[in-house]
TrEMBL record, chains A, B:
KW Metal-binding (keyword) present: no
Domain of life: Bacteria
Domain HTH tetR-type: 14-74
Cross-referenced SUPFAM superfamilies: Homeodomain-like, Tetracyclin repressor-like, C-terminal domain
Family matches, as Gene3D superfamilies: Tetracycline Repressor, domain 2
Record key words, sorted: DNA-binding, Transcription, Transcription regulation
Name of the protein in its database record: TetR/AcrR family transcriptional regulator
DNA sequence: GGCAAAGCAAGAGCGCTGCTCTCGTTTGCG
DNA sequence: CGCAAACGAGAGCAGCGCTCTTGCTTTGCC
């Protein structure tokens, strides 16, 4: 009973905290971050709005908690997609992870907006969000690493002026990988969220219809740009018959 | 005096309307769309908040006006950048336009957020915004067209399953251009805003330092993906000596 | 076991928001 | 000239984030 001696109150605290986050997440999914109201959460939970401040010092702190959870959820989705495509070569895994991220974004548009949309005006994300944010990015770094070790990575060429920056980025993110690949991958990662953002935020309305196919195509081109290639000596099943990579 | 017989009141109306938009734009630039307050605008203009509703039925309508203006401002920036680089070949113009768009976004981050960030929850852009939104996109379509006529366009290859969609998109956007190029350009356009969005929204903090160079590199790769090539028979000055295109 | 201290829920209240309604005034067309 | 439409100002409603005060309950030390 030692831990639950503390626990009677402590447990209630984490339960209430969880309930608040749960209800907040529900409102977030339904109406978006802009309309997330502490008062509405409290109302739904049957408690006074002022009581909420015992658990979250401010609305922004509640948002921070939701952001971390969202990053984690996205990271888990990316990891799952990558693992499910573990042995079909770098291009296949890259495609799978991209589609995993896209699927998550389409399933959770408001969470996506929270992470990659307009930042809240006065709000700056605390450092606690950094590791959670990195999780999904680490998945593609992992793909790059596997490809590099297995001859599935063609070094993209780099302009001379970008080299120092690429070296610096590689030193930070993946010292064991060629700087050209790291820098190009960072760019591809950003571009991926351009594609996803346009779709989630409705910019493709009346422009792109068959979005699955369109996304596949763009992601295939990105793979080519990054330097991911089908393994010369495919150990298992080859990519499957798609011909999405150009040139 | 026929038009200004109407005009005494009508002119006052458009003047007040302009003053409201001006003040609103000032607040937008300073604090962002989320903190744009009708009451604050009215306060600054020395009028009652209720009077504002004679000119804009709701806050969202004021936002719509600002959105159209912002699209127009972005379109003008893109056109200016494209015109300034009129005779340096498709790759140079593409790069110039991309940098023009990026520069505009960095100079007007809140306007950028208004256009390409999280959409306002209940708000759906009326059709009036569509032509303004298309203006900047038309610039790159124009580059594509010029490149196509001047042998500066290498048809990117397409997966078979995307062809029908590409044909449909080309029919809508630019019937005179090869579908492969149109579809790939739409993807590149979206990816461009991934790069810009990551920079404007702070996703590159602590990751990318030399962002000018980084952006140039990514945009050069995009040009290559789209199929823009340096003209075989350069009429005027060649690109200039950069070597930004891979492979 | 008793008791101070800390944690907790609730209510009232402040200043702000978008928006509506009413009222008295001004304007300009027929 | 008359009258309808446009206009500005004020009061007010419901909602928001957040703070402060007031009581009550649990906790943990002596």
């Amino acid at each position: 009973m030692t831990s639950s001696a503390h626990g009677v109150r402590a447990r209630a605290r984490i339960e209430v905290t969880a309930a608040i986050k749960e209800e907040a997440r529900r409102q977030l999914a339904k109406e978006g971050a802009a309309k997330l109201s502490l008062r509405a959460v409290a109302r739904e939970l049957g408690m006074a709005s002022s009581a909420l401040y015992r658990y979250f010092p401010s609305r922004d702190d509640l948002l921070t908690a939701l952001i971390i959870d969202a990053y984690d959820s996205l990271g888990a989705a990316a990891e799952a997609a990558g693992d499910a495509a573990a042995d079909i070569g770098p291009v296949g895994r890259w495609t799978a992870v991209c589609e995993g991220v896209r699927g998550w974004a389409l399933r959770n548009p408001h969470e996506y907006a929270l992470l990659y949309g307009t930042p809240v005006p006065g709000y700056t994300a605390p450092d606690t969000t950094v590791p959670a944010a990195a999780r999904s990015a680490l998945v593609v770094i992992g793909i790059l690493r596997d490809a590099h070790q297995g001859l599935g990575l063609a070094k993209p060429s780099l302009s001379a002026e970008l080299r120092p920056e690429a070296v610096r980025m590689a030193a930070d993110l993946a010292p064991d990988l060629p700087p050209e690949a790291v820098a190009t991958m960072v760019a591809a990662w950003a571009q991926l969220f351009g594609l996803i953002g346009f779709e989630v935020f409705g910019q493709f309305n009346r422009v792109v219809e068959d979005r699955d196919t369109f996304f596949r195509h763009a992601v295939g081109q990105l793979a080519h740009t990054v330097g991911l290639v089908y393994p010369q000596q495919g150990p298992a099943g080859a990519p499957g018959g798609r011909a999405a990579e150009p040139s």
